[in-house]
Amino acid sequence: MSIAIAIDGPAGAGKSTIARLAAKELGYIYVDTGALYRAIGLAASRRGYTAENKTEIIALLDSIKVELAFNDRQEQIVLLDGEDVSGFIRTPEISMMASAVSAIPEVRAFLLDLQRNMAHTNNVIMDGRDIGTVVLPDAKIKIFLSASPECRARRRYDELIEKGMDVKYEDILNDVIARDYADSHREIAPLKPADEAIIVDTSGEDLETSVNKLMTIMRENI
Ligand code: DC
Fold first, then answer.
1. How far is the CA of 209 from the centre of ligand 1 (A)?
2. Closest C-alpha residue for ligand 1 atom 20
3. Do the bridges between strand 124-128 and strand 29-32 make them parallel or antiparallel, or are there none, so unpaired?
4. What phi and psi values does residue 146 have, to the nearest 5 degrees?
5. Distance, CA 90 to ligand 1 centroid (Å)?
6. What is the per-residue pLDDT across 150-203, written as a single tens digit (0 to 9) for each?
7. Measured in angstroms, how far is the CA atom of residue 132 from the centroid of ligand 1?
8. Closest CA to ligand 1's atom 13
9. Which domain does 118 fall in, by range?
10. Count of domains forming the chain
11. What is the pLDDT of residue 8?
12. Helix axes 34-46, 92-102, angle to 10 degrees
């Protein structure tokens, strides 16, 4: 039986960085499910669709293939129709599109088996919004990772600036607040902690402190 650890929480709480490091420590595969929604957001955006084109986005699902793969450093890459699109899915525009497509039930259903199959065949740390509540309700450990919107916006801002992108802190903060609202108020699989989730707040903590905190929780509960 493979072991699954679910980490849910809002954008910028540090889920991916922490989960990636923890997976390395435990020898598990790290699965970033947000990348799947981002790939669909990218596919929609490349066709010129906006959040209003729900019908077209649903139809699009019949003609695209989204896959997860791992490079030789065991890092996840996301393939859209066989193309590695990992480098195109982290822009603010695709973040908003990903949030929009993720509210469409057909999109969530489209990605469900892919996520479950990853956990069926591997020990995984999977991060997202609904992993503990919907995708892997039997996960061995469920963690809900959060931090204040300002703190999350600052982290995302620093990340994008480091990548050489021209962004403003206020825009990022507004995006964070808008996405939090959209992700936690949608009808299907809204962002919320699973009943048995361990809630961890990383506001004001450095990465090392948060990773250590999570590693302790995981080791005590595996
Ligand atoms: O984690 P992220 O920022 O890369 O996710 C992008 C969007 O995808 C986010 O706005 C919400 C959505 N998402 C989701 O609805 N369910 C998941 N399991 C992961 C992401």
1. 24
2. 34
3. parallel
4. -140, 175
5. 12
6. 999 999 899 889 989 899 999 999 999 998 998 899 899 899 999 999 999 999
7. 14
8. 34
9. 4-221
10. 1
11. 97
12. 100
